[in-house]
Amino acid sequence: MTRLTLLNGLPSPIGDTSTVMKRRRRRVLLRRGLIWTKRRDLFPRKSEMQREQDTSIWEKKKMQQFQTTIQELRDANLALKNENDHLKDLIIKHIPQMKEDIASLAGRCAATSKQLQPQNTVAAAEPQKKQPGDDDDDGGGDGGNNNKIHGERTEAPDNRSPRDNSTDGQSAPDTTSGTAMVRTLLLGTFPLETLLQSNLNGGKPKRGDGEQLEALDPGKKAAIIEATMKKWPHTTKGQLGTAINNKLTELRARQKQTKIIDIY
DNA sequence: TCTGGCAGACACGGTCGCAC
DNA sequence: GTGCGACCGTGTCTGCCAGA
């Protein structure tokens, strides 16, 4: 009794009843994984397992996403290959024909250039530039343009330099850069009149107060760019587009200057 | 809505070859 | 050597578009 009294009177080394109960309940909750503890390694908990499960699901979803992305890239690659084949076909079928037209017309122009009278306007030279079989834009463009260039330059035929020859007689692959090649192909592909009335994508010039311009033939344009990029892989499409526009701007400026001279 | 990247449009200057 | 004409490259401005 005394002992009991003594024991009961002393503070319990493990705390009072309520404290013990609280600790016991906490241990139960810890075992059940319903509360968090810093000593995570003591008891395996459902939350941890759940986390592992979530991680696993997330990894699976990530893999699925990767696979989807890979599949999309494969599809895109296939589409690009198909487009490339199409462009190759275009180049193989059209560029040689263009070159033949250019060569034949260059020879014809060389033979007849001395007979041409000096002409101030490109339009005046136009009728002589049409070739039989030029009804197609490709063939017509080739010959017409070359002739037009010749006609334009008949103003000063004696002043022709090798660079001039690169435009008229020299083949595009002989050019020294991608931009030079694209300029040469441009002149050999489209009639000068078309070039004077066109810019790369059509529309009004973004700068200045120019008139409405037509877009160049997308097929020929793509063929020119593709052929150029094939020979000069380091050049970008943007650079070639800039080169084309440079040439077109230059031709328009030259024409405008010629008209001004005609007025005075 | 803002911003950065890209491409088009244009102007300008350098280079080259030819004629004088 | 100088002038001229053509070609070519580069810089700048502008507009469009996708992404943050």
From TrEMBL:
Biased composition (Polar residues): 113-122, 167-178
Biased composition (Basic and acidic residues): 149-166
InterPro entries from the UniProt entry: BEN_domain
Positions of region (Disordered): 113-178
Superkingdom assignment: Eukaryota
Gene Ontology MF term list: DNA binding
Protein name, per record: Uncharacterized protein LOC117562638 isoform X4
Keywords: Coiled coil
